[in-house]
What we know:
By secondary structure, the chain is of the alpha/beta class. It has helices at about 15-25, 35-45, 60-70, 85-95, 110-130, 150-165, 175-185, 205-215, 230-240, 250-270, 290-305; strands at about 5-10, 30, 50-55, 75-80, 100-105, 140-145, 170-175, 190-195, 195-200, 200, 220-225, 240-245. The protein has two domains: about 5-130, Rossmann fold (3-Layer(aba) Sandwich), CATH 3.40.50; about 140-305, Rossmann fold. About 40% of the residues are buried.
Amino acid sequence: MSKPTLLFVDDEERILRSLTPMFRADYRVLSTTDPSRALAWLRDDKVHVIVSDQRMPTMLGAELLRQAREISPATMRLLLTGYSDLEAAMAAVNDGEIYRYVSKPWNMQELRQTVGQAAQIGLRLAEAYQYVTTTPAAQPINILVIEGDDAGAGNTIRDIVGQGCDMECKLHWAHNLEQAMELLMQKDIGVVITDLHINDQDASATVKALKRYRPHVVTVVVTRFRDNNTLIDLINQGQIYRFLPKPISRGLLSRSVQSAMQHHRLLRDSPQIAARHAVEPVAETPQRRLPAQLSGFINRLRGGLSQANG
């Protein structure tokens, strides 16, 4: 079996010189300081993983990964950056749909492990994407909106998403995390739209658990909360599909929900592609210990104790 192909893109030669020897034994390694050269490789070659720096003089990494997604959707995409840059992280999610966000300076063992996982997934996806088909849903896609006490935003979402649904989707509403958890167990939810703070409760752990145990569910986060570390965790541990700031842009939300529905259909019809959304393990610490209610919800997700009834 041939080695997986890795493509490293960084405007600093010294970074490329340090990365290449780390992986040469187990991978076919391509590297370049030129994003245009990287895109040419993606067009002409089979690349299983691309790892790009963010801040490059001719093209930002998030833009490179956006174009990489369009050229070679099976290629796993990682963003490597030494800056705390919320806008870059948002672009990496919304445009590049990245697998992992890796901070510099990296831990060598963790980077090897992350790239190795991405490469194994990329090998499987290279074949899976050759047979991708989507079919219209026999039933409308269930969309769950968790609005909490932000009634204004909830009304806006209701208006925007409701207009775009027609016969394609059915809306469900939760005003707190407890209601959301019950609906997630009772209904075959395909898309979740949620804030990160619901009635003063942190929803991020729920989002992460949902992707781990229901990988076909696609999550769109709409929030005023703007913290780079939180977003990085949601990328790596929750594989959120979109991260949208409040106040809500009607056009952006409408496009994001339509795209999320399309992506849910892809995951539903080609479940092997859900592997590209494999999440990073979340270590439990005293600070991260889950509330009993959420632990119970996770156990139900894990055990499949409730059958989805649409």
